TrEMBL record, chains A, B:
<keyword id="KW-0547">Nucleotide-binding</keyword>
<feature type="region of interest" description="Disordered">
    <location>
        <begin position="503"/>
        <end position="523"/>
    </location>
</feature>
<dbReference type="InterPro" id="IPR006195">
    <property type="entry name" value="aa-tRNA-synth_II"/>
</dbReference>
<dbReference type="InterPro" id="IPR004499">
    <property type="entry name" value="Pro-tRNA-ligase_IIa_arc-type"/>
</dbReference>
<dbReference type="InterPro" id="IPR045864">
    <property type="entry name" value="aa-tRNA-synth_II/BPL/LPL"/>
</dbReference>
<dbReference type="Pfam" id="PF03129">
    <property type="entry name" value="HGTP_anticodon"/>
</dbReference>
<keyword id="KW-0648">Protein biosynthesis</keyword>
<dbReference type="GO" id="GO:0006433">
    <property type="term" value="P:prolyl-tRNA aminoacylation"/>
</dbReference>
<dbReference type="InterPro" id="IPR036621">
    <property type="entry name" value="Anticodon-bd_dom_sf"/>
</dbReference>
<keyword id="KW-0067">ATP-binding</keyword>
<dbReference type="GO" id="GO:0005737">
    <property type="term" value="C:cytoplasm"/>
</dbReference>
<dbReference type="Pfam" id="PF09180">
    <property type="entry name" value="ProRS-C_1"/>
</dbReference>
<dbReference type="InterPro" id="IPR002314">
    <property type="entry name" value="aa-tRNA-synt_IIb"/>
</dbReference>
<protein>
    <recommendedName>
        <fullName>proline--tRNA ligase</fullName>
        <ecNumber>6.1.1.15</ecNumber>
    </recommendedName>
</protein>
<dbReference type="InterPro" id="IPR004154">
    <property type="entry name" value="Anticodon-bd"/>
</dbReference>
<dbReference type="GO" id="GO:0004827">
    <property type="term" value="F:proline-tRNA ligase activity"/>
</dbReference>
<dbReference type="InterPro" id="IPR033721">
    <property type="entry name" value="ProRS_core_arch_euk"/>
</dbReference>
């Protein structure tokens, strides 16, 4: 199993401090609300309450604390206080996840993947069949040892992934090459009882994902599917979340435990210059089919030759709610969350302005009716909108509240707009303001939302492109990392060399996380992937691995970085 | 928690024997296939293989064994052999469940219910807040006590339902009456480590469901929602699964542990005359909001009166994969599964006939192209079809195979049909045969599928109606039950009286399950629900409870029956 965790350790104390800061702020906000509740008063938009209800940490100043605060205050997440390392996904998160689910599900249905549901528990017997696999997961297994007040005869573990749950049945169900390909996917949650620091979406002890498990007759057929799935994963990031990714293959060191090879989409977090694994599509080769005895007769054998059996070629691939965390880190800003329109539950929030004490009830009703008309108009062109007519809150307070929640487009409507038959708008991503004629809303707003979507992608893509630096001199590696880049270096792809590199790039102060007084030594870099799209420059048999302690020949440019 | 289980106990040995019978048959089938596999031969449609691959138990002769066999052989289910009481849902099952999910999800979205995802574990601390609730679930809780090789400081239980997981957060999130209603639903699986005999779909240690948890300002608002949801549950049965249900309220004895009242849809299994709980929608009243401190200020209080707090009114409601089991038991027959068209993954199976050794390759290609045309034509009118061109199997073998799998409509196409420009059809539900002009397929087949759907419902509805017998004489109760009916009797609705009735209706030999030599004493009857639609005949203050040992006045007609 690829270890993406060690990255978090050096700055643990920094994270803890930042977390505390965020929680104190959240508590303060809670107290204000509670006080208001006790006084039977709404939390009105006075200057002080605004500040406390909104973001208190800047993204550039303390990225970890900012992240913790934004996921809480935008109501994506609640910490599960009863058991540490678990999180509650609130409706805004689930809307995003369900949008991804629908999109990906359509893609795999078209490929002929079917859905199944296997039990959440596995016996130690099945687990132990694949040794590398069990070693990877054993330290994180949650064991059920009791039912009611009785001890179980044989304890069972909650699945950390389902290879060992499913493959005994693949062995039963696959009886002939005509049963191939067998392609099953399930949407569920898995449990990995991490000892390391957990972070909402990025590292949780339970997380939602899909896991696809397929069996094929040949390596080629399996390999084709691995890439088709990887392309769907890239699509989730690029088309839905407006997040650019690099497609590539994991090194031997970082591949899936017990697998043959792992392909991956890798993201990049500009705020701290770290790489982050996006999603992985594995070819398991025949390792598992040999352990679980999944064979078919060779369809190419001639009559009279006797039965010759082939072990099937297997893949497994998974995409988790981690994608949401990557999206938040890339697009969010000091005001809070910034959601790409395609995955935002509310795409347009409409806020009445210019309602004063002098507004007559009739004028107010007329105006609110108009807001409903806007909503209806937008619904017809499949734009998800809502209006905010909460009493007791100023427009400014509402602006902040919806900015915090990341809604892509704000419309304002008041007497001045009405006089000109327009609505005013403000983009969440750029802050750009303007007006749209009411008669043009149905045509212009869907276009504007798509512009926001593509602008968000373009901005993130430009940032990743400019921070992916090809390096051919070892001395430049650490300074380049320190300037928040990931690097592409000629590499031998050997595991031992990777270990050395991780070690020899450690230690410079890490300015990416936390304020000055919380500086911790920065982590070493690790390999993110061997990008499919290779820079030119490696001369076979000549170019050496960039690691000065290595001396071997370079095989490929490999992308390295500090990483989640 | 309502106990639907005790019903199964008296005939445990019968079930075990039947199960074994089904398994032996399945094993035999497996051996034949395995032998064929080893010989590198397809399992060809010889007479003997046909018999073993198809159903071996008749629905009328041994209902339990028939059920076990049909869920296995139609490939809905696989037993999870590693851990008893768990089942694997295969693609046909998941298709049904996902169809239900989509339909229900649309219904609740329209009502404003949002989706969330809470952790699967709960701490004993939260669990213990509601005493009746914890007592109901404690014996079935699966406890995680270890992570990796370390003991957890505090063990955690896998959720059996999520009241205790969710409500601490309702207390946090609900700060004002403007936060009401709060309506969250989640689709997940829950674990109840049943000590009793498990049965695929009906009683499993882990099952898929949705659980909705909502909070309202008043009893009236909560009550309205309880019934809206119940109507959606009835719709799942009646509109999708072609299964009739009776809507009603549970008695105090059978209501949800810790709740205020429970509404239910109840089904009926003609083969053994048993009632079966379909799905329940509970009003929890203020019991949980008091325990979890979920309050809002009273919006009706006047200024200067001081803060007055109201505990919110809560509901919870759940629908599980049990629905699939009920559908199978009602519609299936001696040939296997019979699926209503609306929930069948494949609605129409097209089988080529009349292909012989003398058929030229050109004619065969032409014919198979025609099958693809049929499929395309049907796809355009949203009919899900496939064709079966597996070599080495006779049409008769294929007919049996698809009948076993329950596909609602079979089309046959051969040279004779081609000559007349028709396709032949056979309905799965009635066996009715006929022909349809190829030019009429796009218009006629969707209609025919809807006819099958409504005929299946009408047949099941007539059966349930005629076996719901109003009884006003105690002596008639047991004979009526013995004739595979459920009964409606005037009842006092008291818990103690129900216990007596269960006891005094026990003991006659149960002919519904198992062959003669496996007869077990039949179970006593229990209350299924107090139907909303009441027969006439109770005179308030006059009519007595039918239980001769009771003597109290009757409150309502209550539906009783032997039950799952």
């Amino acid at each position: 199993m690829a270890d993406n965790a060690s990255a978090a350790e050096p700055s643990k104390s920094a994270i803890k401090k930042a977390e505390k800061q965020a929680r104190v702020a959240a508590e303060k906000a809670g107290k204000v609300a509670k006080a208001a509740k006790q006084a039977a008063l709404p939390v009105v938009g006075g200057k002080k309450a605004d500040d406390i209800m909104g973001m208190t940490v800047k993204k550039t100043e303390n990225f970890s604390a900012w992240y913790q605060e934004v996921v809480l205050k935008s109501e994506l997440i609640n910490y599960y206080e009863e058991i540490s390392g678990f999180f509650i996904l609130r409706p805004t998160s689930m809307y995003i996840w369900n949008t991804i689910r629908k999109w990906f599900q359509e893609g795999i249905e078209e490929m002929g993947v079917e859905e199944a549901s296997f039990p959440m528990f596995l016996s130690s017997k099945s687990l132990e069949k694949e040794k590398d696999h069990v070693e990877g997961f054993a330290p994180e297994l949650a064991w059920v040892t009791k039912a009611g007040d009785k001890d179980l005869e044989v304890p069972v573990a909650v699945r950390p992934t389902s290879e060992a749950v499913m493959y005994p049945y693949y062995s039963k169900w696959i009886r002939s090459h005509r049963d191939l390909p067998l392609r099953l996917n399930q949407w569920n949650s898995v449990v990995r009882w991490e000892a390391k620091q957990t972070t909402p979406f990025l590292r949780a002890r339970e997380f939602l994902w899909q896991e696809g498990h397929t069996a094929h007759l040949t390596e080629e057929l399996a390999g084709e599917e691995v890439l088709q799935i990887l392309e769907l994963y890239a699509g989730v990031y690029e088309q839905l979340l407006a997040v650019p990714v690099v497609r590539g293959r994991k090194t031997e060191k970082e591949k899936f435990a017990g697998g043959y090879y792992t392909t991956t989409v890798e993201g990049y977090i500009p705020s701290n210059g770290r790489g982050i694994q996006g999603a992985t599509s594995h070819c398991l080769g025949q390792n598992f089919s040999k352990m679980f005895d999944i064979t078919v007769e060779d369809p190419t054998q001639k009559e009279g030759e006797g039965a010759k059996h082939i072990h099937v070629w297997q893949n497994s691939w998974g995409l988790s709610t981690r994608v949401i965390g990557v999206m938040i880190m890339i697009h969010g800003d000091d005001k809070g969350l910034v959601l790409p329109p395609r995955i935002s539950k509310i795409q347009v929030i409409i806020i009445p302005v210019g309602v004063t004490k002098n507004t007559t009830p009739e004028d107010k009703t007329k105006m609110y009716d108009q807001l409903q008309d806007f909503k209806d108009t937008l619904k017809k062109v499949k734009v998800r909108s809502d209006y905010d007519v909460r009493d007791g809150y100023t427009p400014a307070w509402k602006f902040n509240d919806w900015e915090l929640k990341g809604v892509p487009l704000r419309l304002e409507y008041g007497p001045k707009d009405a006089a000109k038959s327009v609505v005013s708008f403000a983009r969440r991503d750029t802050g750009e303001k303007g007006t749209i004629a009411i008669s043009d809303m149905a045509a212009e707003i869907p276009k504007l939302l798509e512009t926001i979507q593509s602008d968000m992608y373009a901005k993130a893509e430009a940032s990743f492109r400019s921070h992916r630096v090809v390096i051919n001199k070892w001395e430049e590696v650490v300074p380049t990392l320190d300037s928040k880049n990931v690097v592409l270096i000629p590499h031998c792809l050997a595991e031992k060399c990777e270990d050395q590199i991780k070690d020899s790039t450690k230690g410079a102060p890490d300015e990416s996380d936390g304020p000055q007084d919380q500086k911790a030594p920065s982590m070493g870099m690790k390999s993110l992937c061997i990008p499919f799209e290779q820079p030119e420059g490696i001369v076979k048999g000549e170019t050496k691995c960039l690691n000065p302690e290595c001396g071997a020949l370079a095989e490929k440019y490999c992308m390295f970085g500090r990483s989640y």
